Amino acid sequence: QVHLVESGGGLVQAGGSLRLSCAATGSAFSVNAINVMGWDRQAPGKQRELVALITRDGSTNYRDSVKGRFTISRENANNTVYLQMNGLKPEDTSVYYCTAASGLGNYWGQGTQVTVSS
């Protein structure tokens, strides 16, 4: 079993920055099996959407609306994934969920609120 613990959300003005962190914990076997880590988000009344993904070897993928503003990174030694968010917009306001995928299963964190005021 893998547990994902997020931190770093908060309230910021438009144009500001936030950095989200997510640490994966659990058995060494389960954590080391994780290949892809990433972030989803869900705004009130909207469907959950992918924000960014990163594989164990560092390949990344972003949704179009965050390209050039958000950067995902990963420390495999610490089983931690980060999301640096710059140039935040009010439409980025959502609950952000850390995700992890392996051959053993898919996992989600409890979420951290990001609110961007105009």
Overview of the structural elements:
It is a single chain. With 118 residues, this protein is mostly beta strands. It contains 1 helix and 11 strands, in the order βββαββββββββ. The strands form 2 sheets. Strands 2, 4, 5, 6, 9, 10 and 11 form a 7-stranded mixed beta sheet that branches. The chain has a 4-stranded antiparallel beta sheet with strand order 1-3-8-7. A hairpin with a 6-residue loop joins β4 and β5.
Structural features:
118 residues, mainly beta, seven-stranded mixed sheet, four-stranded antiparallel sheet, 4% helix
Tell me briefly what this model is:
With 118 residues, this protein is mainly β.
Total DSSP helices: 1
Q: State the oligomer.
A: single chain
Radius of gyration: 14 Å
The arrangement of helices and strands along the chain is EEEHEEEEEEEE
What low-confidence regions span 5 or more consecutive residues with pLDDT below 50? none
What's the number of extended β-strand segments? Answer: 11
Strand count, sense and barrel status of the largest sheet are: 7 strands, mixed
Beta-sheet strand percentage?
over 45%
| CA-CA gap between termini | 40 Å
Which percent bin holds the helix content? under 10%
Bulk shape = globular
Mean of pLDDT: 96
Structural class: mainly beta
